[in-house]
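#structure-requests
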Amino acid sequence: MDLRLVTIYGGISQHAQTQSLQRGVDIIVAAPGRLLDLMNQGFVHLDKVEYLVLDEADRMLDMGFINDIRKITARLPEKRQTMLFSATAPAEIRKLAASLLHNPVQLNLSPDSAPPILVSQSVYHVKKENKKLLLTHVLQNDAVKHVLIFTRTKHGADKVVKDLLRNGIKARAIHGNKSQSARDSALKDFKDRTIRVLVATDVASRGIDVDKLTHVINYEIPEQAETYVHRIGRTGRAGETGAALSFCSADEKAYLKNIHKLIRHDINVVSAHPFTIN
């Protein structure tokens, strides 16, 4: 297409970006922080913008960009077309949409409900306070070689890493409160097998594609059933087999029930473990 385009993001020199801007562009693809910085320096003016696209809006919220987004949109023309894309629609996203969009048309794509066929699925029923003990127990199995663990919150991810390190298991966390360099470093260590375990929140894990990932562990059951399918799809790729283990406490049984409804597939219950609930 005969369009001039520039990508703007932090962590690198702004020189090449500002040179492109000064030559004139039709489309800017930007991370909010660096865009706002260049706006404040006078390199970017948004008074003639016709289209605003917010991609991965839920990730922007998780990464703490919401205030930057509001500052940017405040300097856009009122008359414009705005499009917002999000993999999930929690209350915060609906609130953001209401503040940025005027009488919008809402399009919902049907979720992918089919779990990967090469992934075995198991659930461990366990008291919430025993999950960390169960995790250590599971990781003592030599077959659990390369593991991506999911938690629902950033604080939860850090806590799991702390518990694992205390037990001599190398692990790192990746989530929105980590700097870009810290996230890149953790992912590199995981891909290089320098660490055996990576603990992630759902949003921060997007785009993670690791060869021969043997296991995904749902340390916490996701609130949305579709998220379960996305999580376990990180293993069992490219013809490889994989395993998905889920730790379910009493307060998460409703989430597990919704997962069963969505995938229409039995999940093997593992009762032969030291922390099973009788």
